[in-house]
Specification:
Blueprint (H helix, E strand, L loop, with lengths): L1 H12 L19 H9 L1 H7 L13 H9 L8 H23 E3 L8 E7 L2 E7 L2 H10 L3 H4 L4
Antiparallel strand pairs: 1-2, 2-3
Helix pairs in contact: 2-5
Length: 152
């Protein structure tokens, strides 16, 4: 789970961005695309990217100052922002692990690149999607599927 927290913090604070050779957009690794989709939907992540503490509303000059504010206790005391930030990281990791078990890559690309497998009464059903974003949006719109998902 530690690597997952590091990836989340790197995305939030833009510690490094690898640029692809073809264009100026940052290259996203395949295993963290789902994590980036989860983070882009969370309002706290958007505020952190804008250098604003989502819990106390304080604005910072740089991301490093905000990172210090969220990670380090002051005078040996732990304040609300540190606790809320750690619970935010835990929630992101929990959502990622849950969705990673739900959305799978397909071996048959004619039907779709990604699929969700779930129990439907007497037989197992699969719903296919062309992109990971489509699969993520489908799971967001149908949260009841998370209870019916077949996990291997």
């Amino acid at each position: 789970m530690r690597w997952l927290v590091e990836v989340v913090e790197n995305w939030l604070f833009r510690v490094f961005e690898r640029r692809s050779k073809n264009c100026g957009r940052p290259r996203i690794e395949r295993r963290v695309r789902l994590l980036y989709l989860i983070l882009s939907d969370m309002p706290e992540a958007k505020l952190i990217c804008d250098k604003v503490c989502p819990w106390c509303g304080r604005r910072f000059r740089g991301r490093g100052y905000l990172r210090l504010h969220l990670n380090s206790p002051r005078n040996g005391m732990i304040y609300g922002c540190e606790v809320m930030y750690s619970s935010f990281l835990n929630e992101v990791c929990r959502r990622y692990k849950l969705l990673k078990n739900v959305i799978r890559m397909s071996k048959d690309f004619r039907k779709g690149k990604y699929y969700i497998r779930y129990n439907n009464n007497r037989y197992n059903s699969r719903v296919y999607f062309n992109t990971l974003d489509e699969a993520y949006q489908y799971v967001k719109q149908h949260p009841e599927l998370l209870n019916e998902v077949v996990v291997w």
